[in-house]
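re: ur question from yesterday

yeah so i grabbed the chain u mentioned. its 288 aa long if i counted rite. heres the sequnce exactly as i have it in my notes:
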Amino acid sequence: MSVRLRSVCAWVAMVVLAAGVAVGPSATAGAQSNPYQRGPAPTAASIQTNGTFAVATTTVPRQSNFGGGTIYYPTDTSQGTFGGIAVMPGFLSPQALISWTGPRLASHGFVVFTLEPNSVLDFPNGRAAQMRAALTYLTQTSSVRSRVDSTRLAVMGHSMGGGGALEAARDNPSLQAAVPLQPWDLFVNFSGVRVPTMIVGAQNDAIAGVGSHAEPFYNQIPASSEKAYLELAGEGHLVGLSAGNATQARLSLAWLKRYVDNDTRYEQFICPAPSGLAISDYRDTCPG
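ran it thru and got these structure tokens back, copy pasting raw so excuse formatting
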């Protein structure tokens, strides 16, 4: 090889090396641009099942301002803290009926507190107060408080627990998300909700009919707030009591990941509007 050719090759090598040095930190910075991102990139298949995090539980006895419950949390401590979610069952329902949300959501990178109400007869306003108290306990007193990011909290609930989640969101604008499942409430208005909220109704709900509960609640939330209305085709009021409805499970997960974790990788599942035989209606503002 001539001296001239060796010089050209050396120059090319230096250019490539310099480019690599310049690109490396930029790529790393891009990967770290969202400090709340947890878990691998989602796929249409991965959001239908449990996630990659191993999950442990701890039981909370009855407290003075809520009925106790179970905390589900990722065992991994290498990724920092996780968002926290309080989940409340409905009228006449014990914690066991919404327990599916615990392992499902925790395995995707949340600390989930499924609650026993003070009384199974409690109305939505009482359930909202208990969810607020439970989140305070979770972040300040619980044995897993060091795993929870107190700035990234959400509420979820079924039936009167769903109504309670809406009331909690209305009264606590610092929450990052709310997911009411087949919500039931009376004599309330949710025009003050500023928290990103996905309301899940059931087309054949004979207890919290969508025409008098889920749909009006959605319409009351201003368009300036991030919101979505998912109506499950052919389903009744009890659909919120299990992970069996894949549409409900995957879209509620996507909503929580998008807004609690600020993880835009999940935006693809909620915008543009999802459709299919399992969905009788879907409306949203699309994430802005």
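noticed a couple things. The chain has six helices and nine strands. also Strands lie at 55-60, 69-74, 82-88, 110-115, 148-158, 177-181, 197-202, 227-232, 279-284.
anyway ttyl
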